[in-house]
Write a structure and sequence with these properties.
The protein is elongated, with a radius of gyration of 22 Å. It folds into 2 domains: 3-127, 3-Layer(aba) Sandwich (Rossmann fold), CATH 3.40.50.2300; 130-226, Beta Barrel (Thrombin, subunit H). Helix 2 (35-42) packs parallel to helix 3. The protein is α/β, with parallel strands linked by helices and 228 residues long. It has helices spanning 12-24, 35-42, 60-69, 85-94, 106-127, 211-226, and strands at 3-8, 27-32, 49-53, 77-82, 98-101, 130-131, 135-140, 145-153, 157-161, 171-176, 185-195, 200-209. The strands form 2 sheets. It has a 6-stranded antiparallel barrel.
C-alpha cells in the first residue's frame, strides 16, 4: 500500500509493538517523541495516518486541533492512544478518527489499523491527480465554444490549456474523452484558478455526466501507480 504514518509517543510499550503492526499493514512509520516537533513536521509533509499518545502529552487535544487546521494534513486519519475513557472522549472531540485504549490489545489494534488504512486509501483515491493529455471541448456560460488539451485529471476537477480566456469563479462546461474511451464525460464546472498569460486553467467539477467513465479510468490509474 505504501501508506505514510506518523507515531507520536514516548511510551516504550507502544514503541515496542506499534511500528511492527503498522509496517505489517503496509505503512512506513516516522516516530516522534516530542509533540511540538511532530506538529512542525506535519506542517511541511503530508502523511496518511497520525497516531498520537494522549497519555504522554498534556496538550494532545490542542495538538489534534492544530493538525486538523493544517493545510497538508487536515484530512489525515488520526488515531488517539489513551488509557482512560476521558482521554478518548477528548480526542474524539478534537477530531480523532479512531481511538485505541492502552494497554494495546493486538487484535483490536490490527483491526483499527486495517480500518484506518482503508479510509486512507479512499482519501488518496479521491485526491489522486493523474497527468494526461487528451482533447477537451469547452463551452462558456455565454455560449462561446473553445478547444483545449488536458494537463491532469482527478475526481474533483481538471487542469488544461485553452486559448479562451477564463476568469476565476465563472461556470463552464467541459467534454473530455479519456484514453481508449469511446464517448466523453461531460462536466459542469467552476473555474478554480486562471493563468491567462500561459493559457492554463483549472476547474472544479460541480456535476459530471458519465461519472462512471471518469471513476473507472481514475481507479485504473490509481491501481497502476500503487502496484495493486
Amino acid at each position: 500500500m505504501n501508506l505514510k504514518s506518523m507515531l507520536v509517543s514516548d511510551d516504550q510499550h507502544v514503541l515496542s509493538i506499534m511500528p511492527a503492526y503498522l509496517e505489517a499493514g503496509g505503512h512506513s512509520v516516522e516516530i516522534h517523541h516530542n509533540a511540538d516537533d511532530a506538529i512542525a513536521r506535519l506542517e511541511q509533509d503530508k502523511v496518511d495516518t497520525v497516531l498520537i499518545d494522549c497519555d504522554q502529552f498534556a496538550n494532545s487535544e490542542h495538538w489534534l486541533t492544530t493538525m486538523r487546521q493544517s493545510a497538508a494534513n487536515k484530512r489525515a486519519i488520526a488515531i488517539a492512544l489513551a488509557s482512560g475513557a476521558n482521554g478518548m472522549k477528548e480526542a474524539f472531540r478534537a477530531g480523532a478518527t479512531f481511538s485505541l485504549q492502552k494497554p494495546l490489545a493486538r487484535e483490536i489494534t490490527v483491526a483499527c489499523i486495517r480500518a484506518a488504512s482503508s479510509l486512507a486509501l479512499q482519501e488518496r483515491r479521491h485526491n489522486a491527480r493523474f497527468n494526461v493529455r487528451v482533447p477537451l471541448a469547452l463551452r462558456t456560460s455565454e455560449g462561446d465554444l473553445a478547444h483545449g488539451t488536458t494537463m491532469n485529471l482527478s475526481s474533483g476537477g481538471a487542469s488544461f490549456t485553452c486559448p479562451q480566456t477564463l476568469l476565476v469563479s465563472h461556470e463552464v462546461q467541459v467534454s473530455i474523452t479519456l484514453p481508449r474511451g469511446k464517448k466523453p464525460f461531460i462536466a459542469s464546472c467552476v473555474v478554480a484558478w486562471s493563468n491567462p498569460r500561459m493559457k492554463k486553467y483549472g476547474v472544479r467539477f460541480l456535476h459530471v455526466q458519465g461519472k462512471s467513465l471518469l471513476e473507472s479510468w481514475l481507479l485504473e490509474q490509481f491501481e497502476g501507480s500503487t502496484g495493486r
